[in-house]
Specification:
Helix 4 packs across helix 5, helix 7 packs across helix 8 and helix 9 packs antiparallel against helix 10. This protein has 402 residues and is an alpha/beta fold. The strands form three sheets. A five-stranded parallel beta sheet has the order 3-2-1-4-5, sandwiched between helices. Strands 10-9-8-13-14 form a five-stranded antiparallel beta sheet, covered by helices on one side. The protein has a four-stranded antiparallel beta sheet with strand order 6-7-12-11, with no helix packed on it. The chain is built from twelve helices and 14 strands. It is elongated, with a radius of gyration of 25 Å.
């Protein structure tokens, strides 16, 4: 195959992509454009442009995509209550399609004939990146070094980096890898490959240890309009500011840590440790507002589709027609989801303690245990008899067969 002339690399400045940048230049003698999406990594982006240039990039894009990330990717996913395998709030999964989308846009603008990423041949990210590439530019050439080179371990990557004078954040003492954005931080590899081993407490970046959290509980109120969070404690905030505020509040109470063994799309199990402080509050609050604003059958039907939606995000099918179709269904159901949830935070836990909505379906006069004049309790007898009819018939058949 002809050597690529110009490659746009999804670049984070971490171990893998730093080595890949230098490797692409050495292997193909091509021009490499490094693209780094600012999704809320914070100090990780300091001097990243200088580092990429020193490592061999001909041009460096560092773009602030936080607003688009939260508004167009995180919030739609939260409207669907997406949780993968009962615990993972999909913080890494939801970032990949945005990175890949912008990477393709840059490749088109720069006239690049290839794109590259740092995902391994064992992981989910390779699928997420490449499904997006091909959905948006079917003829693009993809270079995935982890699938073709001989640097097949973290230790070999570290040796390569040392030989070429590339500074990397991974050390022998802390060999796990991290992925950070405004929604979460993930940790995997290294000591975490032993699912019995407890993570180091000083590993976490967004949350304090629950044992060190304040001894006094804190309350937080989150307002929703049509399924989207719009205010915290009565103050209206934009998407980025709102999520940042909730990260701060939940983080100081140690809320949002998750340690799970999940099923990767490629077929193996993997242990992941996650911090999703603000996202955890948003998930709980959204469910609370839905509980008093959504029709029962709408909610139950939507809930049957949540695992499928979560799989689509986890597997990388964000730009698939089935995800877009399901999103339309979800968003239609969210039209009445306007109201406020009140949460209580204490020592690593958060729970709902109140909910209200201007168009609430909750009727105290119907639900009360006190005397009322709006519900005829005697009607329940006929309701039960009709619903029990098939069960009674089946029981009679069983009895006659004996």
């Amino acid at each position: 195959m002809e050597r690529p002339k110009k490659v746009v690399l999804a670049y984070s400045g971490g171990l893998d992509t730093s080595v890949i940048l230098r490797w692409l230049v050495d292997q193909y003698g091509c021009e490499v454009i490094a693209f780094c999406a600012d999704l809320g990594q914070g100090e990780e982006l300091a001097r990243i442009q200088e580092k990429a240039t020193r490592t061999g990039a001909s041009k460096v894009y560092v773009e602030d995509l936080r607003q688009e990330f939260v508004r167009d990717f995180v919030f739609p996913m939260l409207r669907a209550n997406a949780v993968y395998e009962g615990g993972y709030l999909l913080g890494t999964s939801i970032a990949r399609p945005l990175i890949a989308k912008r990477q393709i846009e840059i490749a088109v603008a720069e006239g690049a004939d290839a794109v590259a990423h740092g995902a391994t041949g064992k992981g989910n990210d390779q699928v997420r990146f490449e499904l997006t590439y091909f959905a948006l530019r079917p003829d693009i050439r993809v270079i995935a070094p982890w699938r073709i080179w001989d640097l097949n371990s973290r230790s070999k990557l570290m040796e390569f980096a040392q030989r070429h004078g590339i500074p990397v954040p991974v050390t022998v003492e802390k060999p796990y890898s991290t992925d950070r954005n405004l929604f979460h931080v993930s940790y995997e590899g290294g000591i975490l490959e032993d699912p019995w081993r407890e993570p180091y407490d000083d590993m976490f970046l967004l949350t304090v240890s629950p044992a060190q959290a304040p001894d006094r509980a804190e309350y937080v109120e989150i307002d929703y309009e049509c399924g989207n969070p719009v205010a915290v404690n009565g103050e209206r905030l934009g998407p980025v500011e709102l999520l940042s505020r909730l990260n701060e509040i939940a983080g100081r109470h140690g809320v949002g840590r998750m340690d799970i063994v999940e099923n990767r799309y490629v077929g193996m199990k993997s242990r992941g440790v996650y911090e999703t402080p603000g996202g955890t509050l948003l998930h709980l609050a959204h469910r609370a507002v839905e509980s008093i604003t959504l029709d029962r059958e709408v909610m139950h039907l939507r809930d049957t589709l949540v695992p499928r939606y979560a799989e689509m995000v986890y597997y990388g099918y964000w730009f698939s027609p089935e995800r877009q179709m399901l999103q339309a269904l979800v968003d239609e159901a969210q039209k009445p989801v306007t109201g406020t949830a009140r949460l209580k935070l204490y020592k690593g836990s958060a729970w709902v303690v109140g909910r209200k909505a201007p168009q609430s379906l909750y009727r105290p006069d119907l639900a009360t245990f006190e005397a009322d004049a709006v519900y005829r309790q005697v009607d329940a007898e006929g309701f039960i008899r009709l619903n029990a009819l098939r069960l009674k018939i089946a029981g009679q058949v069983r009895s006659s067969g004996q």
